[in-house]
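Q: Hi! First time asking for a complex rather than a single chain. Here are the components, and I think there are two in total. Is that enough to go on?
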Amino acid sequence: MRLELVTRNGKTIMSPLRIFGAPALLAAGFLAVAAPARAQEAAPAPLPPKQSWSFAGPFGRYDQAQLQRGYQVYREVCSNCHSMHFVSFRNLSQAGGPSFSEGQVKALAETFKVQDGPNDAGDMFERPGRPSDPFPSPFPNEQAARAANGGALPPDMSVLAKARDIEFGGLWFMLQPFSQYSEQGVDYIHAVLNGYHDNPPDGFKLPDGKYYNDYYPGHAISMPKPLSDGQVTYTDGSPQTVEQYSHDIAAFLMWAAEPKLVERKRMGLTVVIFLAVFIGLLYAIKKRIWAGIHDDTGVTTAAQPGE
Amino acid sequence: MSGSTTFVPKNPVLKWFESRLPIIGLVHSSFVAFPNPRNLNYFWTFGGILAFMLVAQIVTGVVLAMHYTPESTLAFASVEHIMRDVNFGWLLRYMHANGASMFFIAVYIHIARGLYYGSYKAPREILWILGVIIFLLMMATAFMGYVLPWGQMSFWGAKVITSLFSAIPLVGDAITVWLWGGYSVGNATLNRFFALHYLLPFMIAGLVVLHIWALHVPGSNNPLGVEVKSKKDTLPFHPYFTVKDGLAVVCFMLFFSYFVFYVPNYLGHADNYIEANPLVTPAHIVPEWYFLPYYAMLRAVPNKLGGVCALFGSILLLAFLPWLDTSRIRSANFRPVYRVFLWVWFAAVAGLGYCGSQEPVGGIVTASQILTFWYFFHLLVVLPLLGFFETPLKLPATITDAVLSTTRGSSGAMVAARTTASPSVDG
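A: Yes, that's all I need. Here is the structure of the assembled complex.
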């Protein structure tokens, strides 16, 4: 997650001098903002194409089967490098999510070995996982993760779908809240998973150990193409293509980042309807109380009330 | 607070209580019998909306504080704990985070209303200055609150803003280290920001009491800017303004709810869902939207100290508005030239906000500089001169006469020049 931010923008602003030199701190802020313009002049990344998601819009709901497939992709592919330490096995059986049964979750958790302890003798020991355990991380620490990934740190995936944005530019930001579009994170993740090219375009110098991706800022991504057709075997007959995998994993990541999304939108509808009715009633009462008194104009045509 | 206290409790227990602590009469005179100009428009409901927002922020904030951990290695995780495991924690947090933005939307409308209708002019200078102090405290509170989730924008925002103090000659660096509680933004900074973030809202609440007190001495200004002359010009606060403010508050709650339930992260920044890392600077450090105009001014001035002075000066200057504005006519409705300049100034602030959100390169820098210049030019040059050169429109003698005079011809009070402004503005 950390290194990724550095490479995402194709620049190195990790110089400890600049960061720790107190008088230069303000400059650090300025330079950080100014830097992208002077940074590597790669071709600008195209906007990730908008996808159709079951959880978009005011009535959005997670697709349970899709989340289950997404978990399968996460477990078989992503979790080899990416941790997800804010999500626990028990979350997989919560309403509105993948909704595995409690028995399934218990059995699933037991397939993992979890370190616990110390016991009465003061020793750490391993035990089978329990539903209350968070997803085990693939690496014991950041250094181990970097060592295994050519210096790059695979970001934790717990809130990844909310931690990625798309810059649309222009004045779209004024309209965006009213379009309710808030799937930038999943659109970006889907685009990156489908944006790999074996060879970079002519003239693009790809650093060693990097891979070319259309949508990744700066195009040089440290993660090799993670998905290929037929890699994960679905049991529900869904197409076993990168396109399908990337939709499923992105949806799963959205759920992992925002497990209360369905509850939120459902409550929102109730609240909005309640308030709208309440406003109607209050407006009628207000009209009645103010009847005969022209507000906003300064006219008095009625007898002074309260006298 | 003022107002005619005619209230005498009938209940003997209340009577006994009232004779020892006349608080019921105080509330009655301030919020029931209080006479308000009858011509207030809906822009005058934002005071009530702001009071509601302050209470909403304190209530959600106190509950969030029960579950939040102000420690640099645990803060981010505790916010995720609130989002995932605390009952309705997601609702509390989204209400609190979006509530900050709503608070600022309301306060900006409230301030703009004061500017348009000249509410800062005599005899309401203290009321206005108290408002500017409340605004400053709000900004400090919001800034420190944004640091608490300890995401990347929290951390780097804190770093950039606290580093502003290092621009102060001689003692700047010492002050910065003192603010941080160390040689960098870290756990000590997070701790003190949490403590202050919890403290300041109560100081704001105290100042709000003074603000309302100072309001209730001269009473509210109104869209005509003509002082209340007789009881005929007013209506009692209850039921007329309780129901009107109530309606406005509920409408605002609907707007607020839309953001909380449907686009809760729109007003935030995606990078703040990445845990703070002192070794990695985000590509683009931006403050929350409500600070963007000031951020643009900070960056517009090439000199660091100059930028910091522009930033703080832009707000402090507002406190001097009652004396910078030399016109005795309050409402912009009667000041044709001021009205145009004011809308240009509003547009300049909005333009600065846009510049603040963009990378400071090329045209954005030039635009920020022009707009920053205009911001100060308007306050320091246009406003003082306008009072001498502008010919205001006819001002009605009283609120009640306002429309009667226009329908019956020009029998209303006539205002030829600012110096002979009708006695009505002197209240």
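A: Chain B touches chain A through 79 residues (CB under 8 Å). Let me know if you'd like any chain examined more closely.
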